Amino acid sequence: MYTVTVSRYTSVSLVSALGLLAPLTVNAGDITHHDFASEVLGKDYPYTIYLPGGYAEDALEYPTLYLLHGSFGSENDWAIKGGLKQTMDKLISSGEIPPAVVVMPGAQSWWVDGYNEAAETAFFDDLIPHIQSTYSVIPEREGRVVGGLSAGGYGTVNFVLEHPDMFAAGAALSPASYVPVPPDHSSGKRHPAYLGEDGEFDAEKWSALNYTAYIDDYKAQELVVPLYINSGDHDTFDIAYHAAVLYQSLREHQPKAVEYRVVDGDHEWQVWSDTLPEALDYVFSYTSRPRSTTPN
């Protein structure tokens, strides 16, 4: 059980950027939309951010979750479709998780340096430094976690295995981490990230960017990144199977630091919004608590 940092005020927030009215909740957080110039992308990098209640008044640095959207999605998906704000407000108010910042970035790739954009490089070289210089967040690994759904779950798995020094934990919801290649009806087969000059799906590109290219090196080093994985039992893309393969591979390496859940549902928002609380509880159980920025 976490001790909640209580602000001097009760905040009632209007999510103006999204046109949503926040519930009357003690210490309710705020969601706003922003962008900044990305040197890697050569264009603006959009993101939506959740700041916990009391953020503006409390002299604290907060743990941060980077929450990734799915294929052909946007930085607004988790806020509009996934109920992120309501879930965060509830879990923080109940003490189930600490007050935290959630960054929901937007990308036109599967969070990889694909054929259409260098999304992974931009995430690490531009987005994380921007967030750490703009907001009061814990800059060390123990204050940073990552999660996502579908293609965002695929990105989450890749990020934690390829960059274990960057994340304290991860949560991959219905991760589209197909081996050897996506099924024919997956958007991975037609996404610009994996389409070569001939406009055809490049299986070699997929293989080079999938988690199977990183997992051996991950296992060979000492850092362990706890990972929560789930899938709907009726997932149309057979992710329950692919996620089980990933889980078993990690379970052999870190038996006490990986969890796998199969829940009722398809590849759909009901699965992701319903399991978001458990995923949040999991990742934030591994982060540092909010800490004072005021010298002792």
UniProtKB/TrEMBL annotation:
GO molecular function, one term: acyltransferase activity, transferring groups other than amino-acyl groups
Gene Ontology biological process terms, A to Z: xylan catabolic process
Protein keywords: Carbohydrate metabolism, Glycosidase, Hydrolase, Polysaccharide degradation, Signal, Xylan degradation
Gene3D superfamilies in the record: alpha/beta hydrolase
Signal peptide: 1-28
Keyword Hydrolase: yes
Enzyme class label: hydrolase
Enzyme nomenclature, EC number: 3.2.1.8
InterPro entries: AB_hydrolase_fold (IPR029058), Esterase-like (IPR000801), Mycobacterial_A85_antigen (IPR050583)
Protein name according to UniProt: Endo-1,4-beta-xylanase Z
Source organism per UniProt: Granulosicoccus antarcticus IMCC3135
